[in-house]
Amino acid sequence: MCELLGISSNRPAERGDTLALFRRRGGETADNPDGWGLAWREAGIWQMHKAPEAAIRSEQFAALSQTIVTDLLIAHVRKANPPGAFTQENTHPFIRDCCGRSWVFAHNGKVPEVIQPHGCCHPRRSHPLGETDSEHAFYFLLDEIAGVFSDVVTETGSSWLQRLAKLSEDIASYGQFNFLMSDGHYLIAYGHDRMHRLHTLHDGVKVTLLASEPLSDDASWEVFKSGELQVFRAGELVGNLKTEPEWTHPSDNMNEKGRERTT
Questions:
Q1: Which of 10, 84, 102, 177 is most buried (CB neighbours < 10 A)?
Q2: Which domain holds residue 55?
Q3: pTM score, two decimals?
Q4: Distance between CA 106 and CA 74 in Å, rounded?
């Protein structure tokens, strides 16, 4: 059901080896054949390429993997569930401007509640381009943090991160909600039930890899605790917030929950 890859580092570098491993997750070593996407920071600007095809069969993915030099990256391979339109608009990552910055988002899981007519979490300021619950959740999150966003991050989270963590907890209670998100500076990872981290330090170069599943047999991969939201900048962990999502059946006070979160 989709897989995520995130990279945060204190120095731009080639990412070919890591992306080659991740590419195999898109239809060879894992059943994620329905799309791929790469978003990375280059000269302070987001670059993004994606396509509704298996990464392992994509010559473009292979070529990009060998040319990308970056310190910040979000990648995704897709398994559509339930099967839907295999279009560019439904392929992750998604990008949107908010708070004077461009944000990128990719999701693993399923939270169909967010796209139901009377669902919990409808974006109010703009309309998603595609049909996925993932993009709807992304737009909703940005709408809700727009009024409190700042560039301040502390170990226990600033007000906007605390707000983001609470909203993520709420959405996760309706299904499965693991995501990577970035404003071009911070890399935010929410591990509802499927996220791993690997930190390396070599010759002063700090790199943090985030992945739905470990990409190697390295014993240093660490699994997120359920409901953990971690924030990275330049390869370092700068914030860590804990949430406790609980399963909520869509029929349980659905309208009341929706009004509480969107007023």
A1: 177
A2: 3-262
A3: 0.91
A4: 7
